[in-house]
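Weekly puzzle thread! Below is a chain. First person to post its structure in token form gets bragging rights.
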Amino acid sequence: MTREHRIDLVCHPASPSAAVRGIQAVVNRAVSGGLHLTYLLDGDIPRLRIPAPSAPVFNAALWRRTCFESFIAIAGDAAYHEFNFSPSGEWAVFAFKGYRDGGPLEDESLRPPIKFQSAGNHLRLDSLVRVDRLASRHLCAPLLVGIAAVIEEEDRRSYWAIRHPCATPDFHRLDGFGLRLDPA
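Winning reply:
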């Protein structure tokens, strides 16, 4: 059994977008240990820089261009994981012991499947994070989840998240994660 959460992401006021009208995320936590993520973008697609399809390889620098992200922590714990999903099919996972204290986790068993579609004024990216592969305690603990996106346009980047707790875009702050998912 899953419970669907629909969240409208907010553009950080310091990085307004001229081409994106909105981004919505749909999140489902399954009993099987998966976190299903769908990102729906509405905007002037030709004005966006979308990475071309490529092999689904690890790339720790995805945040420098258009990508979609999720941050996952066990409630009450300072440690968290970051997942990056590119429309190209590239991916990245990072493990942190605390605020920005960590780095890349190049583990093929964590590679999320990524499906990307574009039609008209809409983009859709679907992915699955296997939280059961992070640690067994992720299965039965409440999770705090941050959902974010970096969107590259011709002349700027915009930063989207559930909430922005500070004056500059920073997706790593636990107080910005904004979604609590109890065990399924």
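Puzzle host: Confirmed. Bonus trivia for everyone else. The first strand starts at residue 4 and ends at 8.
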